[in-house]
Amino acid sequence: MMNNFRRSDNRGVPSEFEEKVVQVNRVSKKTKGGNKVGFSVLVVVGNKKGKVGVGLGGAPDVSAAVKKAVIYARKHLFTIPMKQATIPHEVYVKVGAAKIMLKPAPPGTGVIAGGPVRAVVEAAGIRDIVSKILGTNNKASNVYATMEALKKLRSIRTTTQG
Predict the structure, then answer these.
(1) Which region, left, alpha or beta, applies to residue 96 given φ > 0 means left and ψ of -120 to 50 means alpha?
(2) What is the pTM of this model?
């Protein structure tokens, strides 16, 4: 269940960031008065120019959960080093049960990635990349592992100097 939309900020001005809802979970808690039902939403936010963030929000209704997730994701944005429209080097990351491999690709290749990885990579603005999800098929775990992989990237300048 992935959908693309641009949201305006509090002042009604269209935002430069694109938001992508990766996962919506219905969660419930047993209470004395019955079941308390809510929603947990995983959102990826990016400006398609190298900045990306991820947020997890929970609330009694989906729209409030999305809003919380977007606020968290915008507060935790980071910049990805890029080489033209791809990543500077290959990276492999294991976070919990999630294993993600990202490889740079020549121009024109496009985004070859599964759902959760594709959401993060497209929001970041990477247009040519090859990736593989090797571990779990849990969307949230794969999104967080992809974020860790992108954080591990180093620009060409820093890799040649050090």
Answers:
(1) left
(2) 0.86
